[in-house]
Amino acid sequence: MTIALSNTVANFVTHPIFVVQTRLMVQSALRKEKRYFGFKTIGTIIQQEGISGFFKYPSFLLFYVSAMPILQFGPTILTRRFLSGKSISIQILALILLKLGALLIRTPLETIYMRLSIQASPSFRTCVRISVFPYINAVNCLTRIIKEEGISTLYAGWRWNLVQVFLGSLKENIVLEIEE
């Protein structure tokens, strides 16, 4: 519980860094259309959007930063708490299955989070397509993605998340074997 809470607080506090990073990555590559430059990006966002430019959709942001540590650390905690006396192969299998289940929830949340994060002022030109009609909230974002692009769009990054899950599970399995 302490890990999840500390990660929630850390993710919320460092969220402006994510916004800056995302805006820098998706802005147009054309020099005349670039709005953000390095550390000046922070001042530009505050000047054009106010401090709320870093914390758009606060209810979803709070939900997201609270859910991610649970989805990230929950499978490991559950496996260690309830299967610690079982064989290592059962623990590994359970950990992988729990992490895959968490991945099914995590990937769409990350897609929605990213879509909401790149919405800036209407004049912001990006190298990725942004809807002409801004998302109103997370539910609107979810329903529009499904309606306009299909449910598979929510899982566009699942392969890379799967690699992360696999490598993370491998690391945790090594730790489990060392502990035994």
TrEMBL record:
One Pfam family, short name: Mito_carr
Protein name per UniProt: Mitochondrial carrier
Taxonomy of the source species: Eukaryota, Fungi, Fungi incertae sedis, Cryptomycota, Cryptomycota incertae sedis
GO biological process terms held by the UniProt record: nucleotide transport; transmembrane transport
Keyword Metal-binding listed: no
Membrane topology category: Multi-pass membrane protein
Repeat region (Solcar), residues: 1-82, 86-180
Localization annotation: Membrane
GO cellular component: membrane
Segments traversing the membrane: 61-82, 88-105
